[in-house]
Design brief:
Radius of gyration: 21 Å
Strand content: 5-15%
Order of helices and strands: HHHHHEEHHEHEHHEEHH
Strand order of the largest sheet: 1-3-2-4-6-5
Low-confidence stretches: 22-41, 43-62
Number of strands: 6
Number of helices: 12
Helix content: 40-55%
Distance between the termini: 63 Å
Length: 261
């Protein structure tokens, strides 16, 4: 059995965590309280009201809407955004600032589908605009693509708290909208940026290390097949820049595929 932390250890941990937070680290686990600590006070009236509002909106309970029916009813990318704004079936929506939908040109030949929004995206309401997004823009620019020739979105449309990985249930709630998004855009080529989007939309259990660098067929509901290329997520490349050489090979493969279409 693990011995409880004494007050001095807890103060040291709090100081370390404060430094981490200033450095941008998020979603740290709560510190254990010392044995002598008093029980936590009951939630305030404001907290209880917020929780009640979330429950009234349908969060934390079984969804009251059919997400697939709502997504399929959308006939344009604008209508799909309206459907997402009205959808209550993903609990992430209760903790996010806003829906993060897309940026770029929906008539473009290339559609990039990432994983989930981060802090910057949640604040601004557009995907891939933080450090990882800036790297993605540079990667696309290296083969002559920009916001007029590419359309950028995610498979999950609300930020998971602390930038954690979305759960299977959260991905599943968003998947009908992500699939309909691709159907409405009908790009010539899809780039799956990261393992979550590649695995979810290709219905594969293989990891991104195995999926990247190889072309796959993404099949629309009407049987139309679109070539799809999984790549490393730019956030992964920021953590492991030694993998950029592989991503450059993938970008050259993407450029060659576009030239051949």
């Amino acid at each position: 059995m693990t011995a409880p932390l004494n007050p001095e250890d807890i103060r040291a941990l709090k100081s370390l965590i404060s430094w981490w937070e200033q450095s941008g680290v998020e979603a740290l686990p709560p510190l254990p309280a010392p044995k002598s600590a008093r029980p936590a006070p009951p939630p305030s009236m404001e907290a209880r009201a917020t929780g009640a509002q979330a429950r009234q909106a349908g969060f934390g309970a079984a969804p009251t809407q059919n997400g697939r029916a709502m997504a399929q009813a959308a006939q344009t990318v604008g209508e799909l955004k309206q459907a997402l704004d009205a959808f209550d079936g993903c609990p992430l929506k209760a903790t996010a600032t806003q829906t993060v939908y897309a940026r770029g040109n929906p008539q473009a030949d290339v559609m990039v589908v990432g994983e989930a929004p981060g802090r910057d995206e949640d604040r601004e309401g557009a995907p891939f605009i933080g450090q990882a997004g800036q790297l993605l823009d540079r990667m696309l620019a290296a083969i002559g693509l920009n916001e007029t020739s590419a359309y950028i979105t995610n498979v999950v449309f609300w930020r998971p708290p602390g930038n954690r990985k979305p759960t299977d249930a959260e991905i599943e709630a968003c998947l009908p909208f992500a699939e309909r998004h691709i159907e409405l855009v009908r790009p010539k080529v899809i780039v799956f940026a990261g393992g979550i989007s590649a695995q979810s939309l290709l219905h594969s259990k293989a990891g991104i290390m195995a999926l990247r660098g190889r072309w796959h067929d993404y099949t629309l509901s009407d049987g139309t097949m679109i070539p799809a290329l999984p790549m490393y997520h730019p956030a992964f490349l920021l953590r492991r820049p030694q993998e950029k050489a592989k991503s450059w090979q993938d970008l050259l493969s993407l450029k060659a595929k576009l030239a051949a279409l």
